[in-house]
Amino acid sequence: MANFPKFMFTIEREGHTWKKNMYIDKKGWCTWIGPGTDGTYFVEGKDTSGNIYYQVADGELHGWYLSVSDNKCVGVYKSWDDAVYWSFFTTFLRCDRRHGPGAWTNIRFRKSDDFLYCDYDCSDLKVEKEAKGQPRFVFKVGYMDGTTKRFGYLGTDTNGWIDVVGYPWSRDFNEFKTDNNETYYCVASGSWHGYYLSFSAQGRVGLYKDWSDAVYWSYANDELHHGQNPLVVDNTTLRHIHVSGGFTKCDVYKCDE
Asked: What is the pTM for the complete model shown?
């Protein structure tokens, strides 16, 4: 797959309003930088069992794996043998190593220095994935409710289904293209970052984690299509979004955040 979404980890201390970016220093150790300064870009990978790992996306340490040292300091390592798996637990990023340093521990910070650790003796950090350096936008939709035209934005329910919502609950997206110039969309930030805009066998639009579930889209003349099927809103709920079912067609606008 070309142009796989790369991202930065944004970090927020509890009780603080600023966000900083995770940064790998020249020695390969994990610290933070910013706000207002780019950190280190990562890409997400999965093994055959679905376990998630992260690699540096570019630069001198390109391809190195995010991991944890013997003293529980977070850093990157060249060898797959030194890699660990990771998962998000609400807004915390957790090392999924079953045994050894950092096992089942969130990324945290130690007040005595600026490095990041997977250590219960340190303080928790909120962590999010966020695409940076790429245009982000929201999808605004307009549709007819009887003789009245209504507007809303594409957002998600707790299960990842796409609904029409108010702007504060909208999802931001990035647009990517394959080598064949086919377009797909990924969520740009938050807990759904990197999930693909797609739809179920029944035609309901939602977010999907695996590339095998992604679909291509075309956007022109204020319409978003998959093949010949435009985006439509459920006539009953006036909320759920589909690509089939004979519902009300939506006008779709890509808007800067």
From this structure: 0.59
